[in-house]
Amino acid sequence: MTTTDPALSPRTLARQRRRASVARFWRQYRAERAGLYGLAVLALCALLALFAPLFVGSDVSSVTDAPGRPMQSPSAGFPLGTDQFGRDLLGLVVWGSRVSLLVGLLAAVLSVAIGTLIGVTAGHFKGWYATVMMRITDWFLVMPTLVLAIALATVMSRSLTTTVVAIGVTTWPTTARLVRAQTLAVETRPYIERARALGGGHWHIMSRHVLPNVMPLVLAQTTLIISTAILAEATLAFLGLGDPTVVSWGGLLQDAREAGAVSAGDWWYLVPPGIAIAVVALAFTLCGRAVESVLNPRLGVSR
Amino acid sequence: MTADATPALVEDKQQTAAGPRVRKGSAYPRYLAGKVAGAAVSLLAVLVTSFFLFRLIPGDPVKTMTGGRQVSAEQLAAYRREFGLDLPLWRQFTDYCGKALTGDFGTSYQFRAPVVDKITEALPNTLLLTGTAFVLYTALGIFLGTRSAWRRGGLGDRVNTGLALTLYSIPSFWLGLLLIIVLSVGIGPIPGMFPTGGMESGGKEGFAYVVDVAHHLVLPVVTLVAVEYGQTLLVTRSALLDEMGSDYLTTARAKGLRDDLVRRRHAVPNALLPTVTLIFINLGRTVAGVILVETVFSWPGLGGLFYQALSVPDLPLVQGLFFVFAAAVIVMNTLADLVYPLLDPRVAR
Amino acid sequence: MGTNDQTRSLPRGLRLVAVAGAAALTLTAGLATPLDPAPRQARAADDGKKVLTVAVAQSVDSLSPFLAVRLLSTSIHRLMYEYLTNYDPKDNHAIPGLATKWESSPDKLTWTYTIRSNSTWSDGRQATAEDAAWTFNKMMTDDGAATANGSYVGNFRKVTAPSPTKLVIELKKPQATMTALDVPIVPKHVWEKVSDFSEFNNDKSFPIVGNGPFVLTGYKADSYVRLKANKSFWRGAPKFDELVFRYYKDQDAAVSALRKGEVSFVAGSPSLTPAQAASLEGAENIKVNDAPGRRFYALATNPGAKAKNGKKFGDGHPSLLDQRVRNALFMAVDRKAIIDKVFQGHAVEGEGYIPPRFSQYFWKPTASQKLAYDPAEAARLLDQAGYKKNGDGKRVGKDGKPITYRVLCHATDPNDKAVGKYLQEWWGDLGIGVRLNCLDNVTDPWLAGKYDLAFDGWSVNPDPDFVLSIHTCGALPATPEDTGATDNFICDKTYDELYARQLAEYDPAKRADIVKQMESRLYDLGYMNVMAYPNAVEAYRTDQIKSITTMPAKAGNIYGQDGYWSWWSAVPADSGGSSDNASSTGVVVGVVAGVVILGGLGAFAAMRRRATAEDRE
Predict the structure, then answer these.
(1) Nearest by CB to B288, which of A144, A178, A227?
(2) Is the CB of B54 less than 8 angstroms away from the CB of A282?
(3) How far is CA B31 from CA B22, B24, B26, B333, in A?
(4) Which of the two residues, A284 and B8, has the higher pLDDT score?
(5) What is the ipTM of this complex?
(6) Spatial separation of the C-alpha atoms in residues C461 and C475, rounded to whole Å
């Protein structure tokens, strides 16, 4: 063990310990086959989204320079056909991944950030603060999420920010509860007592000791919530509550419906964005479950 | 409901782990009173939210209500008076709460009918859809979840869990649209077998009416079941696996009981207990989560009404519906809380 | 806590699930029964009944003619109640309805209507002038009854019925709409029992007593509206036995239903999409009615909203007050592309304010006047107006900030969003930003003047007076608190003078000439830029409807006519009776569905039984 070497500073020690635990985590994660598949799909999607400007170009969403005629069925030129403006649907689906993934990511980060903040503080400061926070959490928990998100999206103007906020604000309570439980468990450990005795303030304890310990849980939560957020983004866009000028998967489905693609039988307009949503949501769920089962093998969720 | 399915999955494990435990029989009434009081507080909080949240919708409901037709300031003022919108906000709020407590949610702006009437008109339709779907996906989820856990790691389990996870990742509205294309309109050799939307063809009586409604019910129910059963399956499965690691099972096995017998007689029933909580909560959530499926299938339920009310905004109707959606979840949560200790065999009563 | 306890709980836990399931089932089954609307409609067996089913999406706001304002509800009232006058389906001139003839005093202040004696209410009583007088008087005296149509009677001094066939209306000042009083006349003997008109929705007891071509026999919110033919209708009985409006909230579902023959007619809201029309055109037994529309589709510019008392309100962009800017913006709109791409040919390129369907008033800009698509010229105009590009290629306003216009759009109209995307790119090339503000309900920012530009459209009547009047200074709201008749706050002296002149002009040709001058003025001002005249695209099944009257008879539309012509005139096809074959397959599939559901329950029960069997061993 590294602790036997007295020449190492505490900081290096901590870093080494962390590196070791990441390696251990990865070793266990690798055993989860479904999680690996999920990770592979996600990596592929992320690459596609990141490098989309290179192979489809931002003018793929331009309506004035649309290359095809409206609603063309798949052909060599347009492998997935065209939309009602004559834009290349394959390009749009690739391009749409950027917004869908971004919204999913941002919304999940927002949701988890709120949840972690409330969870950690409610676990750390006990008393009336915790009581009030947990009441609020419980109350948000019983709110029908979709209804609340629709209401929020209606109250605010239609933009990506609105979508992110509407999803983030409605999905944080579960994280808050999980994080609080974890915080309570961590704070009973002796070294926290020691840190406190050594004069560590609230901020020090929360940021240096509690947070690193709840991080794995937060990671698992984030992965799971991204999948929820991507579905929620699609849902809001489908209900016409998204920004109509932005290309996202949900927005494409809504466009398809408004153009009458369903009854016209133009399946190529409807099927690819839906599959994209399902695949990415599934990939995130698989990763989240894998992380969860590594952290808590007793759950035996996968394998 | 796609939006909150995953967190609920996690949360429920948490909830059962910290599940309510009642030590003595005499404690139950106090426990019950506490839970009911908590629910009452939640309902009140919902009432407050429903009032203030929707006041944030930009717009003057009276001007919207008159649809931009030429109306004089006096007439607009008269409308405001009629709907009590001329009062200061706090008075509107106290009036609203006072009336809501007596079950009066005011008059819908756009339908000129009591909100309660509009809701009771649509509620049975929503309950018919959610109720049927709920029974089916719960049964299916428990059944497959148990099987999956029994044959953990086998091909059946992998296919089962994989399918559940996949269906669970599919947007319900998209699945609904596909089902309409394939099974309702018909594609290639597949004939259109089911109606494209609505709840009835109209003008049918007696048995023919029931059959007609059942016919309309198939596709929306299939959609709901497909996207919802996965959650029940996964929770049942993991609860069962959790239970199978317990000491008493090892003891039972050590006593020489057959493996499958141990599982069926001891593990399954106990594992089902936590699932009960999930079942109740699901029922409450499905009522609100059905909005999408109702939209796709033109089902004349609460979801469509809510959406329509939001666009006006028809404040009284929006508030009433929001309250109903939230109340469904709260009531079901409370029921779960109340029933759970009664079921838990570890409670000495 | 022994194993025994665990075992005993087995049936208990399962029983709970079973009980919950059973409870839910009973619940749903129980609920299904009171839903049954059938008993209310005692009627003969299904055989040979000719049913005309129309797919609709709009909810009925009220079945009371005193409250209803939505298109569907008022169209249904047309079918249920006879109005004093009707419009000729060919050219829209006023023709007899409940009144057989009418005359006015020379000062146009007293109008005498002769009420027909061959119209009876569906409960057998005669419809008389007394019913009409009562209806109008109620609207004049009861605020609740004036909710929907109060504007028609605001100017009435007195309404009397000296005899059952004679109705006399005295006015305070002359009123143009006296032969177009679109007010359903209701039976006094039924309606005088109503206590509160502001809350009575006329949807509790069926059939509803009426004297129109159809009698309403059943209604369930967002499910259906059912009407049966009035065999004793004075103009002649409708050819179909029944007319059903069925709800499809989703337009694709409605089109699919038409394809399958579940419904006979689909109009779409506002019309079928190009893709739907294209796919239906090739379908068997379906006719797509692609009629020149009576609507114009325009881009309205906020001229700086103000009230009659001179108070300014709203926050329209100041640069738009410059006519050169407005013209430049419109010159950067490629209208041909909008027709080709957005409407895909189901519209006509916009020119003047009034659609070409009304040839009498249709006006085209002269070659020199025309603001043809010319982005280069548009850029030049903007430069000239002082809105130059900055270093980033964005044009800056007088305040030094880059210009971004907020464009108000209807979230429910796909065309608004589609054209909005084009605007973003066209105007983006000019160096001007566009922010689409798409709302379900645009009324509020619109009335408050909180927009820069907005998508606008009106259905034009054969007499253009109304659509012309909404751009006069007189239509502005009295104060910012009032709602005026104005469309988008245009107030122009020249236009107003022309408007007054056309009102006083009795010679049709001369009047038309003045109207064209008004259109020319409106075009130059650039506050109302007409981009297109969309067609009405609707479709029906020829194996269910043999023929149907459009309005106008030549190349007209079917849904949303001024009158009951379409549904009253529709002739069933020989194979007619839409529901018959559908219902037999329906039963078969319904049984299959039942089996599926039972199967699910069976699996559940099987699981339970296995568990108990296990317990017994």
Answers:
(1) A144
(2) no
(3) 8, 11, 9, 14
(4) A284
(5) 0.85
(6) 18
